[in-house]
Amino acid sequence: MEQLFRDLLEQNKLSCSFAFNEVNQANAALKLNANTSSVGFVYRHVAETMLMFGYFFGMPSDVANTTMGQPDIGQGDDVEATKALLDKGFAMLEQLIENTPAGGWNEPIDTPFFGTVSKAKLFAHILYHNAYHAGQIGLTLKRA
Fold this sequence. Notes:
By secondary structure, the protein is mainly alpha-helical.
């Protein structure tokens, strides 16, 4: 079971890297239009959210929520700081995989947005969330 979750995480990191690795100081402020968030903001949102999900797995983070439900006022301007948070989020998921026994993936977790779900379902949502926003970043970098 552990190898399955490692494979899922590694594929998510690889798939998202095609967009995430293109984010830099020169393009962080790009937006598709005036009504969308900037590349840097979305990148920061992914990193913060991944770390904040750790709370539900008993792995709380000290990261502050500056993006979820917030307007883009330049929170993603420091691309290097965001990259460090993103790396920390992926490391947290790796630690989660290492510390979860095979049967532990079925443990219920109460969330305010999905209700009670298994640890595996919440893990899957994190990977989806990462990929969803990687797609937004990739589209913005290509079209803006």
